[in-house]
UniProtKB/TrEMBL annotation:
Name used for this protein in its record: Pseudouridine synthase
One annotated GO molecular function: RNA binding
Organism whose genome encodes this protein: Liquorilactobacillus oeni DSM 19972
SUPFAM superfamilies per the UniProt record, alphabetical: Alpha-L RNA-binding motif (SSF55174), Pseudouridine synthase (SSF55120)
InterPro entries, per database record: PsdUridine_s_RsuA/RluB/E/F_cat, PsdUridine_synth_cat_dom_sf, PsdUridine_synth_RsuA/RluA, PsdUridine_synth_RsuA/RluB/E/F, PsdUridine_synth_RsuA/RluB_CS, RsuA_PseudoU_synthase, S4_RNA-bd, S4_RNA-bd_sf
Amino acid sequence: MANESERLQKVMANAGVASRRASEKMILAGNVQVNGKIVEELGVKVAPTDLVVVNGKALEREKKVYYLFYKPRGVISAVKDDKGRKVVTDYFKDIQERVYPIGRLDYDTSGLLLLTNDGELANKLMHPRYKVGKTYVAKVEGIPDNEIFKKLRLGIQLDQRKTAPAKTHLISADSKKKTAIISLTIHEGRYHQVKRMLEKVGFPVKKLKRESYGFLTLAGLNSGEFRKLTQEEIKRLKQ
């Protein structure tokens, strides 16, 4: 990965110079040099070892970073929020790189969220083709029986489209309070998917947490804490 060449405008955008579109305009205006030569056409690729200078200033390229975060409830899975609510990047103020979440967890859902500045990996992990299993633990109203679990395993009709089969099981049930805790593993990422699936079969969600993402879990973390992924974990994710 380290020696991969990338389009100049993408490198500029990743380094936070400007958007990709605005970076293209800067290139066409002759404001960008690569290894001392002015570049005035699009499509030029640069390697990590190339010196890129924009408006007379050398480009500082961010090293790629990968974090596993235990998102608390009441936090938005975004970089900023126009209503001034707490966002996940508020927890990453002490790190130099500008990271963003891979996918999202609802405001009132807690659990495992990955953050990175590696756009290529983020896009791959979010693509349904790669079928990354995500396990959720839900507290629901009512106690589902085997028939309900069978429906979830076969797929639920949402937005005129059936969900992919889910893995599911009952963790515990409270007959006095008429609530249950269930585990559900899916690999899609449709809008409010877990909540809507359970609502559809008559078991509204009271509380929801994402316990795992592929082979990654929350082990060793408390709510609001994060850790860097190990080299081995990064390698496995990329595979």
